[in-house]
Every structure is written in C-alpha cells, then in structure tokens.
Amino acid sequence: MSKFIYALSTLSGTIIGVGLFSLPYITSKVGIWLILGYFLVLGSIVIIIHLLFGEVALKTPDFLRLPGYAKIYLGKWGQKIALLSAIFGFWGAILAYLIIGGQFLTALLRPVFGGNDISYTFIYFSLGAILIYFGIKTIAKVELFGLILFFIIVTVIFFRGFPLLKIENLFPVGSLKMSLLFLPYGPILFSLWGAELIPEIEEILGKEKALLKKLIPIAILIPIILYLIFIFFVLGITGKATSEEAILGLGNFLGADVIRLALLFGIFVTLTSFITLGLTLKKVFWYDLKVPKNIAFAIACFPPLLFFLIGFKNFISVIGLVGGVMLAINGILIILMYQIVKKIPRFSLTFFLTSFLIFIFILGIIYQIYYFIR
Predict the structure, then answer these.
(1) Radius of gyration (C-alpha) of the chain in whole angstroms
(2) What is the phi/psi pair of residue 147, to 5°?
C-alpha cells in the first residue's frame, strides 16, 4: 500500500504543477461552463492516453522512457520524433516552472532580503537541480508533502476568503469572443498531462505493477478536482482582478499573511514538478541515449535556465505551446504504439476510436501553432 501511495502522490503531485496557476485567469476570460466542458473532454482523453501508455509500459522491459519505447515499436523515425518532442517538451515545462517559481520566490523573499528576480530564480533553480540527485523515492515524499500542503492552503483561503466569494465572478460579463474559444486547450492539456512519468510510476510500484491501471484514473481525477476547487476560490474572490499567476492577485483581498502562505505553496508545487521532470529527462538521456550520468544531468537541467536568461519569460505562452504541440505529439506516438502492442485490427472500433484521438491532437497542434504565431 505504501508503494501505491507514493506512486499516486508522485504522479498526481507532478501533474499538479505550474499550469494550475493559469486556470483562474483563463476561466475569467471564457467562463466556468466552457472550462468544465474542457475538463470533461480533455480529462477523459488524458486518462485514456495514460492508460494506453500504461499498457505499453507493462508489455515492455523496464528502464526505458518514451523515446526508448518508440524505437522498439515505431522504429528510428518514432524514436527521433519522441526524443525531440520529449526534450523540448521537458525543457519547456521546466522553463515554465522556473518562470513562475522564480516569481513566487521573489515575491516571498525580496521584501525581506532585497535583490532581483534573476537572483531568486537562480536560487530556485539551484535547489531543484540539487534535489534531482536524491532519486524518485525522496521526490515521491516531497510530492506527498506538496499535496498535503495544497489542502492546507485551500482550507486557509476558504476560511479567510469565504465572505468575499461571489458566484457571479465565475461568469464573465458579455458574450464569449470566438478568439478565446480555444484558449483553454493548451494550458489544460498541459495541466493534466503526466504520461512521461508512467514508466517511473511502474518502477515505484515494483512487484505491484498490476495496480497501475487502477492508479492512473485516480491520479488524474485528483488534480481535476483540486483545479476546480482552486478556480472556484480564486476566481470567486478576485473576479476581474484575477492575475495571470492567480496568487499575487489575491493579495488585495486576503492580506499579506495569507499571500505569503500561498506563495510558499506555489514554490512547493512548482519545485516538486521541476524536480520530477528534471529527473525523468535526465533518465531519457541516461537510459535511452546512453549519455553519461553527470552529462545527462547537465543537459536536462541547464538549457531551461539559459532560455530564461535570454528572455523567454511569458509562462502562459510557454505552457500553451508545450501542451498543445509537444504533449499532443507524445499522445499521438503513444496511440500508435498501443495499436501495435495490442495488435489492433484495422477498421475495428478500437482502431477507429484511437485514430480519432490522433485526429483531435493534430487539429490541436495546428491551432496552437497558429495561435502562437499570430
């Protein structure tokens, strides 16, 4: 049971990352009904994709990651696409954690110690990079603590902010602009995705791998429920004053003490995901590409810091692009591998349904690239 709890907390805790903080702002633009629709549809799709990858992982030897799986089932072309998608997807996700995590750490500590955002982002990065060395069991414990901390923060916000809640804040005034109709797609997909962690979760379960199929839906439903609670509280309190990262906008309503606690939560949430994704990317280089361990660590961790230093600091654009393009590509590869592993007959219902998911991902990729370019 302890392995199940650690595996569950690792997957859920990693999924609950920086995307969480974009959701109240996005909801303020499109309304709660559209957000609920997105969570229903994309949540179902994400659970299916994770289950499909779970099937692939259970049929494949351990100590491989997505590119390694793709090489076995799709050949060298699949490995190359998976490798590029994984690398840039992980780098983009880690960059997003650096952007928003550094902002939270700056807001928490600069009033006391002074300094600038670059310094605090570097401190944040250094702490995460060091913790990557401790391995998955230590990270699993940190993820579990992060989930507990989330419930504490939400409880505090609830009691402090309940008198300020206004249901009408969940519904934007006026009709929805068509240009915003697909705004939630990339960020929500990013916020729910954790498929690359499936092989890691399989390792944690050890001899209890049969529990993987039961664990996956629970691990994704937990973030969905927590996201909706977070949206309800934050948007219900701040309304039109909701800030892009959610937490700082609460300062005008709940006071400095609650905001400091919320910033601490934000730092833990982003840092734990930073650690887990950094470790996973390191293992992609180490296990799949046979890069020496220390070099794999450096390649995994330092490029996102470089991207930040040269000016990539808009976290909503970053998570939208990563979610809508890189993760969608991974989803397509997972479906193709599943079709091969399970030997799905062409023209069967399962083949049709899984191919339809590929079509949805392709449309999402086209939209996200168009949205980013324009």
Answers:
(1) 20
(2) -65, -40
